[in-house]
Structures are given as C-alpha cells and as structure tokens.
Design a protein that fits this description.
six-stranded antiparallel β-sheet; 2 domains; TIM Barrel; 12 helices; Immunoglobulin-like
C-alpha cells in the first residue's frame, strides 16, 4: 500500500476514535454510534464514587472487571455525593481551592508518584483514560444534584447560571478531545420541584447553563442526558429541552412492584421523540425500601439477581434503548476501614467481592441478545401473546418484535407455558429458541411450528425466567 495512503488511513481511523460518540438514530428511538451508524446498546454501571473513593490500582481493577463483564458505560460523578467537595480523595486532594470562587485546586505536572503534582483532576483524567483504553464510555456527571438542589449534604455551590456555566465550561474544555465522554446532568434530583401541582423551585436554568457550556465547546450534537430522582422520568419537566438527547427514568429501590415498562412505553409516544432508558433500576443487594426505619431481612429483604433481571429485561423489551446495572455496595465502594456504609441492611459484602455479584455476570447476555438482532427498529407488541399475559411485576410478560416481523422476543418472568400468535410475524421458516438469561445459552425448540398459534413450555422449572426467541427467515 502507498505510504501516503497508509498514513491518511491511520489518521482517518484516529479521527474516528477521537470523535466516536453516540447519538439518537433517525427515528428518535434508539442509540447509534456516530461514526458508523451501528446500533449502540447502553449497558451501564453506576460507579458514582469512582473518582472520589478509589486509588489508581483500585480504579483499574474496577474498570477491568466491568469491561470483562461486558459493560460499555461507567457512570460516575466529578463532584461526588458523599461529601465529594470537602472530603479529600484517596490522594488527599479536593476539587476546589475556594468554594466561594470555585477555583480549581490544580498543580503543575501530573506525576502520580509526586503528591505535589498529582491533583484531584489529574486523578479524574487518569480514570477516564483507563476507561477509554478498554473502549468504555464515562457517563460523566459534572456534579451530583445536591450541589444544585438544597436539602442534602451538598453544599449547594451552583447557586446561579453563571457559576454553573463557568464550571461546566472549564470541565468541557478539559475533556473536549476525550472521545469517551457522555455528559449526564442531574444526579438523583428533580429539575423542577412541585407542590400541589404548582412549581415551587425551578433548577432548569442552572442545568441549561451547563448544557450550553458543553454544546458551545463540543458542538450541538454533544450527547447530554439527565439522571432524575427516584420514581420519576425526565419527560415530566425536560421534554421540551433542546439539549436533552435521551429520556431517563429512575425506577429505583423502593419497591419490587414498580412496572417501569409502562413509563417507557408512555415516554416513547412523546413528541419530539427521544430514546428512553431506565437509568437506575433496583440495585442488586440493595435493601428494599430501607429509608423508613422498618426494614428487616425477613419482611422486605434485598433485591437479588432475579429482581434485577425481571425489571431490566421487561424495560428493554418495552422499548428501552439500553439499561443500567448497579450494585449497592459498588456504587459507594464499601470498605468499612475507610467509610461507614450507607443503607446496607445487615450484610457487609464489600465492593471488591460485590463486583462479582450474580447479576453483574448475567446482564451482559441481554446486550448480546439485542445486538445479535441489529435491526433495532422494533416495538413492544404484546398482541403476540395469546395466553394470559399476567398483571403485575411477578408474572407480567412483555413481548417485542421488529417492524418487519422477522424476529420476536418474549420475556417470561415465570417458567410457565406461553401461547404465541405466530401469524403476527412475517411468513417464512420459523426457528424458535429458549434463551437463558443467566447463562446466555440458547436451546432450540424441536418440531414444526407452522400453526397460527403455538404453545411453548420453558425447558426447565428450576430457572425462573426465560426469553422465547423467534426468528423468521
């Protein structure tokens, strides 16, 4: 190959890497990679305190583990929730010299072996670059919501648009050439507070100022999302915000009964159209509703791997463009020699052991299942189900198919027979499989499936949940 052409090709590939990011597709329902238009399935993990609580070696171990487990987005916070402004990170550094002026506490140089050089922001840089080495995005929250909305540890430092804009502008300038940044505003807070259907506080001007800083620095197509408070969706208060690229829901940890798939279906009907995702489902090993002081292991217990799968699979089959996993002792990086754990019930696991929790090793099978059918123009279609669909979180079946009708996926939270209206799919040769969400393995259904209606029975009762996969050639 001509040497000049080789150099140009390498430069072109380098340019693609630098600009690689995701964007909504033309339908406004899915996420695709900008440089090739291929479907992108967001499989995130909430490492909220990553920059604040881990040292370099620990951060690499965390990223390496999550990369091996198939995650492609790590969500973390530049100004962390757990006293992330005043309490130093693992190297004794804080983000600001002065909270009144918000002057960054930066130093000359970035040698990690020299404490006089390696500052708070150098450590953030390091973690982001290590994620990039593993082809992982950082869903970067500029600040947890308590730095904007009063009522928690805070402190509230973004008291007006100007302060928010200048901080976000500096952050955006620092990372404008870093390909693996996805901006996420919010941080477990509402953008607008209501009482008796009346607005009592509106924080949207502050968030808009941050979004403006990102777009002015990196362009209007910079990806920006928002992480809302538990039990809510960004569709309520941010539907008309031009900077918002994706709707996010936090179905949260207060109940097993949450049917987030209904909220996803509703949000997908809104105009302008946006992709939708549950950005914080129930965390594995999180106590169910521990905040009222009446939690017990026997009464409410913990969310387990089955709880996580049943919520996440149905949210995706209802139209979710991806999903987020979380472990309650990983997001806060529980290590009792350093910090008191938050709401862990009566069991201390520790973050390193919790990295290998069951669902953390199961959930990548969902990403692989969806990407094995790259026609992402799909819809929830429960008319496929001819038998009883169920009515609550314990038994409700959700079905999805592509618009062409060349494939369908049906999630069963119970290992019970299901009858399918096969005539809802296109004509052709049918291949039917049972997909195991725990192992990721497929088992082919033998025999003819030519009837308009067919009944299928899961191959094992010991495995609680299954996916019925139908391909038509």
């Amino acid at each position: 190959m001509n040497k000049k052409i080789s150099i140009l090709l390498l430069l072109s590939l380098f340019s693609i890497t630098l600009s690689a990011q995701i964007t909504p597709d033309s339908s406004g329902r899915w996420l695709v990679s900008k440089h090739d238009g291929q479907p992108f399935f967001w499989l995130g993990d909430t490492g909220w305190e990553l920059f604040h609580r881990l040292d370099r070696d620990e951060a690499v171990h965390y990223l390496e583990t999550r990369s091996r487990q198939g995650f492609n987005v790590i969500m973390s916070v530049a100004l962390a929730e757990l006293d992330g402004i005043r309490k130093p990170n693992r190297y004794g550094d804080v983000p600001f010299n002065n909270l009144k002026t918000l002057e960054w506490d930066t130093t000359t140089g970035n040698d990690p072996n020299d404490s006089a050089q390696y500052d708070y922001w150098d450590h953030v840089d390091f973690v982001i670059r290590e994620a990039a080495k593993r082809n992982m995005y950082i869903g970067l929250l500029p600040a947890w919501g308590d730095k904007v909305v009063p009522g928690a540890a805070g402190p509230v430092i973004f008291t007006n648009e100007e302060r928010a804009y200048h901080y976000a502008k500096k952050l955006a300038e620092r990372y404008k050439d870093q390909w693996n940044i996805l901006w996420i505003l919010g941080g477990d807070r509402q953008s607008v507070e209501h009482k008796n259907n009346r607005i009592t506080a509106d924080y949207r001007p502050v968030w808009r100022a941050m979004a403006r800083a990102f777009e002015e620095t990196s362009g209007k197509d910079t990806f920006i999302a928002y992480h809302p408070r538990g039990g809510s969706s960004t569709s309520r208060n941010l539907q008309q915000e031009e900077w918002l690229d994706m709707h996010a829901i936090q179905s949260s940890h207060g109940s097993r009964e949450v049917k987030v798939w209904n909220q996803i279906a509703d949000d997908l009907k809104l105009i302008p159209r946006r992709p939708v995702m549950d950005m914080e489902p129930c965390y594995e090993d999180h106590p169910v509703n521990p905040w009222d002081g009446r939690w017990t292991r026997s009464e409410r217990g913990y969310f387990d791997d089955y709880d996580v799968r049943t919520r996440i699979y149905r949210a995706v089959f209802a139209g979710g463009c991806g999903t987020v996993y979380g472990h309650h002792q990983v997001w806060q990086f529980v290590d009792t020699t350093r910090n008191a754990p938050i709401w862990v019930g009566d069991t201390i696991i520790g973050w390193q052991k919790a990295l290998e929790a069951k669902a953390a090793n199961h959930i990548h099978h969902l990403k692989e299942l969806m990407l094995s059918h790259p026609d992402f123009h799909r819809m929830e279609d429960n008319s496929l189900i001819a038998s009883e669909r169920g009515s609550d979180y314990t038994d409700e079946i959700i079905a999805t198919r592509n618009l062409k009708g060349s494939y369908a996926m049906i999630y069963l939270p119970r290992p019970e027979p299901v009858t399918i209206n096969m005539n809802k799919l296109k004509e052709g040769r049918r291949r039917v499989y049972w997909f195991n969400p725990v192992s990721g393995k497929k088992k082919k259904v033998r025999g003819r499936t030519n009837a308009d209606r067919e009944t299928f029975t899961p191959p094992s009762q010991s495995q609680k949940d299954w996916v019925l996969l139908i391909d038509v050639k």
